[in-house]
Amino acid sequence: MTTRIFGSGIRRREDPRLITGQATYTDDVKLVGMAYAAILRSPHPHARISSVDGSAAESMPGVVAVYTGADTDGVLNPMPCAWVVPDSDVKAVAYPPIAKDVVRYTGDAVAVVVAESREQAEDALEAIDVNYQVLPSVTSPEAATQQGAPQLHDDAPGNQAFHWVVSGGDTDAAFQSPEVLVKDTILQQRLIPNAMETRSAVASYASAMGDLTLWSTTQNPHIVRFLCSLVTGLGEHKIRVIAPEVGGGFGSKVPMYPSEMIAVFCSMKLGRPVKWTESRTENYQATTHGRDHIEYVEMAATREGKITGLRTTVYAGMGAYLSTAAPGIPTILHGLMYSGPYEIPAIKGDVYGVFTNTTPVDAYRGAGRPEATFLIERLVDMLATELGQDPVEIRRRNLIPKFDNGHDVVTGLTYDSGDYELALDTALNHVNYHELRHEQEHSREHGNYIGIGVTCYCEICGLGPSQVAGAVGFGGGLWESAIVRFHATGKVNVFVGTSPHGQGEETTFAQVVSDELGVPVEDIEVVHGDTDNTPMGWGTYGSRTTVVGGAAVALSSRKIKEKGRALAAHLLEAAEQDIEYEDGKFFVRGSPDQNKTIQDVALMANVAWNMPEGMEPGLEATTFYDPPNFSYPFGTHVAVVSVDPDNGYIELQRYVAVDDCGPQINPVIVEGQVHGGVAQGAGQALWEGAVYDDNGQLLTGSLLDYALPRAHLMPDIEVLSTTTPSLDNPLGVKGVGETGTIASTVTIYNAVLDALRPLGVTKLDMPLTPEKVWRAVQEAGLHGHGHGHDHGHGHSH
Ligand code: MCN
Questions:
Q1: CB of 741 sitting under 6 A from ligand 1
Q2: Is the CA virtual torsion 728, 731, 732, 736 positive or negative?
Q3: How does pLDDT run across 6-18, given as a tens digit for each residue?
Q4: What distance in Å separates the CA atoms of residue 746 and residue 258, rounded to the nearest whole number?
Q5: 248 Cβ inside 6 Å of ligand 1
Q6: Taking the model in full, what pTM does it have?
């Protein structure tokens, strides 16, 4: 082969079916005799249910049944929280699939109607008579911890879901009398994930056999099978979970939700298949949200700009109940990353998980790591301002020097490999940083406010060694498995336990197999998403599919190569050690004409007419791969913005992303991942935010009120990379699915604040909407900061 298939930007093989409408999503599934479920959701954020009367609804046209919490109580077990972080007093409060006594957020399920059509089911919802006794509610995670705040759960006093501490080095000493101290209060606003496809479930229970099939919009069908077994009491071997085409998840399709279990319950009760599909408004209320932190953060440093300590107190909103992975996010995936790419000798973080009367919070792209990157990078920029130094220089002074194989940080993690300064220099050279700063000065003199944000980040992904998963309270393993199977015709199926839903592994995994075995990509089909025909795996999230699942695919391919070599030796009547392999051909060393292609070998292995003694027929291999470590991608992002002080409008002029995810299997897919990730991170910085009013109502209840970024708001994202392999997996790869989101929010935020500093604005909460920016500029103006007054880098705050 002249060009390697590993590393080439071939087109995504999943796209033709997606763009021609031939893909099958859960809501496309239609079964004979299928009924439709609609869920009645609480209109109150907190209320006692005095009574629920479904009798009027039951007599509505087409209605098959109405069920309430009284029906599911004792039949379905509570929704499990599957990440009980140790040493943090996690209150795994009861989370009933349908509320029976108390509702705790607007959207909590109260009853379900099953009818012959979706419309009939929805119409009947209005006929259900619920008597609520409204209780006081609280939506802010900090307010919820205060004395006198409404209490959500009797067994979680003070609404505290957990208190977790990360600590390394001597922070008391570092903060005793630091030469320089910078502090901030950061609002990581609550976000709504917005996958294009809302959630949906089709449950089909066959009572004669006791078999349940569940089509579900999930990122991890095997975990759904596992947890569904816990909730329903059905044996795991009797449950088949199918994640057909899944239209994006971004973390929100990791959790196990009540709604899916309600669909299962209905199907089991009625002996009919039951479909439930969310509306967009329902999705906003009942699908998990992300972020929602209030953070008090401070950084100590020397006058030379060496960071000596970092301290945080974080109130992390959990919503009304603990969703599947929720406690792990502001702790393991957040606090342990407080060192970022820097050498920080002392770190302490107090993280309080807090119950509020809001939609439960769980993973959202980046999950904990954007929040960590944000606070580190914000403080570093503030430190630079305080010292009157260039923020890039402060970063450079603190970066961990290049390392190839392991670097310990004080939070207890061991990073795999890194060359942070190379990524920084690559980005700075690309944008011509010094020139850019000159332009900025120059524009300011003409009343144009340009801002530059530079972020150095490092993230944890590729989750992870199972032993560590157990140690940090994750309720499962984090290994992956893959079967690579040759058919007699030389075509290949790859069966994987991971479950991509937009990321493109049907393409990249085929590239891995093709690269390892010399089979054309067109001859390889990657199968995923069905627990009945794929081996066990823990799913697609935490940018782990390629690092962990891809490794299993590569190792299975290598096992096949070794069996192929032995069989080829036998067929060629040569000694095994004399057989060489290249580009899909086994040949006798020195005589390449004496060869067998891998397809010849596959045929002979499958017909098994002439096997060496003791060799089993068939040509396939299974690998269970448990990685020895996480993977730690890194990079530098640069944003250039201009801010119009007269109307607060921010233009994102330029965005440069330099990411290092090790060797790239498919650079076009990697670039696409970075694009999507950056847009999502930009959304948080500039536009997005879930807003509840004082009565606990979600004001941003639809796409009319929740501002998702649109294509025309994004600049042409310039994607570059460096390549630092990880020595911890057989492909050397690191994840890339979240890097864009992790780096971009703070990059853009810092750029905007850089632009606003000469106008006297040094603090703003996200999202940085024009109104907020305009008001801040006006207010600063009243205090003596007019347009065009440049107060320079040394301006204090
Ligand atoms: N890749 C590569 N070379 C590398 C690393 C990755 O070619 N060195 C490729 C992979 O093979 C894959 C893609 O890049 O095709 C992303 O891979 P990876 O980093 O392994 O991430 P995952 O597949 O585990 O995806 C999870 C990640 C997360 S956590 C979120 S959230 C997210 C994201 O991916 N959600 C997405 N990207 C998304 N993209 C789409 N379209 N939809 C989502 O819901």
A1: no
A2: negative
A3: 999 999 999 999 9
A4: 34
A5: yes
A6: 0.97
